Amino acid sequence: MDPEKFIISGGNRLQGTVRIDGAKNSALSIMAAALLTKDVCILRNVPHLTDVDIMAEVIRKLGVNVEWKGDDTLYIDSDNFNNYEAPYELVKMMRASILVMGPLLARLKRAKISLPGGCAIGARPVDYHIKGFEALGAQVEVEKGYIEAKVNKLKGDDIYLDFPSLGATENIMMAACLAEGITTIENAAKDPEVVELGRFLNKMGAKVEGLGTDLIKIKGVKELHGIDYAIIPDRIEAGTYMIAAAITGGDVLIENA
């Protein structure tokens, strides 16, 4: 059977129990955020998916110790976090790899990462990330398919996003947590992943306000600490099972939704 094709023979009533995995996109941003502290972060309910494995390998290449404990728990220890360059061969496989830029700038004051998807002509989604980093005081250059950023000290500023980019909002939030002063992000993304990332950061000791609105305020702190945290359930997976059960007249118990 073609691995890119699913053949579904319908007409059956769905019955049984299904457990919902953690939300992949939330897990990816929170894995990146774990780099903001020298302490160990324990992440539970992490979906063991290809993208998660790629992100784990990206941050391993940065000098971070990442270990699976069981099927859905990750231990992330970034005490020896020392490499500012994310490898091209991994970044090209997953666009969310760019989320390590904010933590790299905050911790190491330098970041180098290939453009997700390679070079592009015209406006790129990554431009919103660059605009935010430059507002925080970083010098950013894009050359030969790479983004390289350097900063002596991140300083808070008022940032307006021309588009409410999820990734840019998350990246700026993470960098701003360890910046000096106050940062505001206007026209910020309001996605559940942003709210969840903000909750994670606040439990680490950050001061993030306005989650779930289009105006997010971050007051920088000197350091963050490690925590034990469970990733939220995947709302899309839960919704898919709900719809499938409803349209087949099924009887399905959805756990961890």
Helix percentage range: 25-40%
Class per helix and strand makeup? alpha/beta
| Number of alpha- plus pi-helical segments | 8
Report mean pLDDT, rounded to a whole number. Answer: 92
SSE string? EHEHEEEHHEHEEEHEHEEEHE
Beta-strand percentage range: 15-25%
CATH superfamily: Enolpyruvate transferase domain
Query: Structurally, how many domains make up the residues?
Result: 1
Distance between the termini: 32 Å
State the name of the first-level CATH class.
Alpha Beta
The number of strands is 14
CATH topology: UDP-n-acetylglucosamine1-carboxyvinyl-transferase, Chain
Summary of the model, kept short:
With 257 residues, the protein is of the alpha/beta class.
